[in-house]
Amino acid sequence: MSVGENIKKRREAKGLSQAELAGAIGVGQSYLSQIERGTKTASIQLGKQIAEILECTLDELA
User: What residue stretches are annotated with the HTH cro/C1-type domain (predicted)?
Assistant: First the structure.
C-alpha cells in the first residue's frame, strides 16, 4: 500500500474529510487529494503533521 493510500485509509478511519485534514495541516484540499492519489509527495514536515493528527508514526504511513 502506498503512503497516499495509507493516509486516506487512516483519515477515513478517524472520520475526517479531506477538507478537515487539509485545514488541520495548512494545505488545500486539492493538494491533499494529490498526495493521497500519489501524484504529489508530502515533505517530511508535512508527513509529521499528518501522522500527528492521524495518531500514528511516519513509519506507519510508509
Answer: 7-61
What per-residue string of b and e applies to 47-57 under the rule 16 or more CB within 10 Å gives b?
bebbbebbeee
User: Full-prediction pTM beyond 0.85?
Assistant: yes
pLDDT tens by residue, the chain, 62 residues: 999 999 999 999 999 999 999 999 999 999 999 999 999 999 999 999 999 999 999 999 99
Of 27, 1, 6, 14, the residue nearest 54 (C-alpha): 14
CATH number of the domain encompassing residue 43: 1.10.260.40
Rounded to the nearest angstrom, the gap between the alpha carbon of residue 26 and the centroid of all alpha carbons in its chain is: 12
Which structural domain, as residue segments, surrounds residue 48? Answer: 3-61
Total domains in the chain come to 1
